[in-house]
Amino acid sequence: MARNLYDGDRLNRTDTGASESSIMARWSNWSATVDASGIEMIRPVDREELMTSAAHLFHQGRRVRPLGNGHSFSAVGEPNDTAVDLSLLDSVVSVDRRRSQVTVEAGMSLRRLNTVLDAHGLALENMGDIDRQTVSGALSTGTHGTGASFGGLATQVRGVELLTPDGDVVAVNESNDDFQGMVIALGALGIVVSVTLQCVPAFRLEAREAPMRVDELLPRLDEFADGTDHFEFYWFPNTHTTLTKRNRRLPREEFASPPGRLSYWWNESFTENILFHATNRIGSLVSPGIPRLNRAAARFVSARHYTDTSHRVFTSPRTVVFREMEYALPRHCVHDALRELMRYMDRSRTQVSFPVEVRFARADDLWLSTAHQRDTAYIAVHQYHRNPHRKFFAAAERIFGAFEGRPHWGKLHGLDATRLAELYPRFTDFRELRDRYDPQRRLTNRYLNRVLGD
Q1: Which helix (H) or strand (E) holds 39?
Q2: So what's the pLDDT on residue 5?
């Protein structure tokens, strides 16, 4: 059975005699695409210790990277020689029931946040399908869910508190001129201390999952995206099958009919994780058999209908390790881009054992948001971690690039600052913001040097 890396400790201590707040460690992200050894790891237990420790590191001229739970596939969180692990800063700062706003510390996981919101009759308006990221990590990399009328997680932010390299604590909200440039910031402006989120009254989601032939679905994409609160689908390579997911928002008072224990185990635990891991493992050993395995996996896709608390429908457990690249395209281009991707995969006989995922989001005004100023469709390609992915991802990136695609900051891609400046109208403004907050580049790493320039 696959080990759930989300639940594992990604820190491997090399000095067991060190204190809890400062250790020498080896760090890797959950997918093991990034690895750093011999780094000093600061793990503050509260806000005061964060301020003291980080200020001391900055004063020494150290390069510091804030760490969440290491969910990103890209090297956005890779430490240089010093890192600040925020995982113990997971307290609730305040709850404003009247305004439906909560302020939480940066290291709180989305899973814990959902528990907190449940207790106060609140919910996130929209979220992705993983809840193991920290709030600050998910925001900083532009994490999103799906829904043509809804924005990504960062659009729900109403305030951010940052510890900057000069030792100041800066609190910004929507009244600040630079606010829209400071929400999705890749950890390049300061260490996030706390975040204020605009929530909504708790609600339920009615989930309808059903297989559909890809040639029937693609002509109806707009119908499904616009006619469903939260729509997404998965296409199984080497097949004509997709799995469509349509989630409709309902009042919290609506009767819940969650999946039974057996149904949940069969779908989330067995089919989507245990069996899926087994078929991927076989495919990695006998790659010519991947198309046949994909066709077999597609036959396991079946219809489901259930209703549950929103975050229980939005999120799913994931234990199979993979690599991922995701691009945000102008929504009107998604049909052509998908067709081009499918043609490439047929022509090249690329062996891919993971489904291709498609999601949607409305336009927003956040400077580094992948949905900045345009309604967006996301296409995500995946590959099992034991199978080669670079050639496939490079080809997909060329296809998405032809449609002015923007890469997800937390997932694998090959673009640099020159190309990204062409894709983001406010890119230069963000770099000026970075020059103001971190002129000495105390928060940089190789990834930021590539995507933001130096």
Answers
A1: strand 35-42
A2: 29
